[in-house]
Amino acid sequence: MNTLFRVDSSSDIGLGHLMRCLVLAEQYRNDDIIFATQNLKGNVNQKIIDKDYKLLILNDNSIDELCKNIELLHIDNVIFDHYGIDDKFEKTVKEKTSVHILSFDDVYKKHYCDVLLNHNIYANARKYEGLVPEFCDVRCGKKYTLIRDEFKRIKIKNHPINKESPVIFVCLGGADPDNVSLIVLKILVDFDNATINLATTSANKNIRKLQDFSKQHQNISICVDCNIAEMMKNSDFAIITPSVIIHETMSMGLPFISIKTADNQKMMHQYLCEKNYIALSLSELSGLKREVQKYV
Looking at 17, 82, 111, 269, which residue is catalytic? Predict the structure, then answer.
C-alpha cells in the first residue's frame, strides 16, 4: 500500500501537525510512506527525511497538483492534517482519485473522509453527526491519542516538587510567532531559586531575542531542537500550551500550567478549565506569577 501524508509546517503554522503525523506514520510501517509538503519558511521537513520517509515538495496547496501526484505515485491512502484543506477539497480529491482518506480534526469542522481522527482527550464523537458522511468511521478521544515513543519510554513521575530549587520546563510552541515565551520568561525570572529551561525549535523566528534575554539571567537556558521528553523528565513542572504536548505531559505525570496562545487551542483550553487544571489565556498572564508560586 502507498500512503501519502498531506501536511505543512512553518514559522506561522507551527510544527504540531507534522509532528503528530510522524507519530501516526508508525502505524503504517508496512506501507510505502510519502509526505507531501510545501517548502514554507521555517518548515521542519528535515524531520521527515530523518525518519527515512520520502519527501515530495509541492508548489502550492492546489487540488490539481495533489491529484496528479496521487495518480503518478499510485497512492492508496491519503492522510490530511491541514487547516487549509476543507470538506470540499477532500471530496474533490476523493472523486478524482478514489483514494481512502483519513482526516485529522481538532475543532469539529465538516469533513469528507473515510476516517475522521480527533485524538484529543476532549473529543466527542457525537459532535460529528452531520459533519461527516454516513460511511465515515469517527475515531475520537483518549483511545486514539498519539504520543511519541520517547515519552512512552519514560516512567510516570511520582516524586514531590523540589520547592527549594525547582526546575521549570517551558514550551510554548515550536514556532511561537507572537513570542509569548519571552513574556513568560520575564515573569519567571523573579523566581531566582528556580532553573528555567525553555524548549523551542529552529522554526522560531524569535530565537535571537530569547537567547539575548537568557544571557542576562543565569537561571534561564534556551534549548533549540532538543529532546523535550528528556527535558521534561528532569523537570518539576511545566508551562505549556493546551496543544498536543498536553497529552505527552499527562502521560508523564508532570504537573503543568497551560497558556492558550492560539485559537485552535480553544477546546483543549476549555476542557482543562472544566477539569480544574491551571489553564490561562493570554489576557490572564498577569496571574501567572501567582500560579507558579503554588509550585515553588
Answer: 17
Distances, alpha carbon 3 to alpha carbons 43, 149, 273, in Å: 21, 21, 38
Instruction: List the one residue out of 165, 175, 164, 163 whose CA is nearest residue 199.
Output: 175
| Radius of gyration in angstroms for the set of CA atoms belonging to the chain, rounded to a whole number | 20
User: What are all long-range contacts of 206-214, with beta carbons under 8 Å and residues at least 24 apart?
Assistant: 206/176, 206/177, 206/179, 206/181, 206/182, 209/179, 209/182, 210/179, 210/181, 210/182, 210/185, 213/182, 213/185, 213/186, 214/185
pLDDT, tens digit (0-9, with 9 covering 90-100), for 242-288 = 998 999 999 999 999 999 999 989 999 999 999 999 999 999 999 99
Over residues 177-226, the pLDDT tens digits come to 999 999 999 999 999 999 999 999 988 999 999 999 999 999 999 999 99
Does the annotation count 17 as an active-site position? yes
Supply 74's cell numbers.
499510485
How far is residue 33 CA from its own chain's centroid?
Answer: 21
